[in-house]
Amino acid sequence: QQQVKQSPQSLIVQKGGISIINCAYENTAFDYFPWYQQFPGKGPALLIAIRPDVSEKKEGRFTISFNKSAKQFSLHIMDSQPGDSATYFCAASPQGGSEKLVFGKGTKLTVNP
Amino acid sequence: DADVTQTPRNRITKTGKRIMLECSQTKGHDRMYWYRQDPGLGLRLIYYSFDVKDINKGEISDGYSVSRQAQAKFSLSLESAIPNQTALYFCATSALGLAGKDTQYFGPGTRLTVL
To answer: What does the pLDDT average to over B2-15?
Structure first.
């Protein structure tokens, strides 16, 4: 059973465009939603995270939008750059912090110059 | 120096061989994880350990075993490697952070090929 569903599997965007990656979950006990970024040949690294008490969090060109009623959250990359080309994973963690993260299957983003 | 190191970085082996992948961390974290990454399948959890005396199976533990030798060391073993264990393997560590939530820190990965 896949607890966090991520789409699309791959995404191609032109430089300067907006990249949007979506995730959906079923478990209402999830209360922490991070995004990880992975460059080729490297391990994933935390990019940005959100708690469900806010609907949006912005850090530079990266924004998480969160819809609690729909149980969906998304990553928006504004003014996408070739250096943003990477694989992005959404994840979720249940309340309490004693449980491990559950990851989506990843989205490979390619930003063309 | 990297906070989470994995050895070896690349390994080619033959079917039936025993293989050990090692992970060390200098972050002082209690929690350590082993993941497997395959194209289109994302990160799948093999085993995890919340402290030295705690070992737990993850989503895909069959064919793998682990050893937590110390707080800083967590090893993954393939007792008898088979070709479908060819994958990229990641070690990660974490500690309860802000509001008790995990942030996982990943190593650089080990690319394992089983012929």
So the answer is: 94
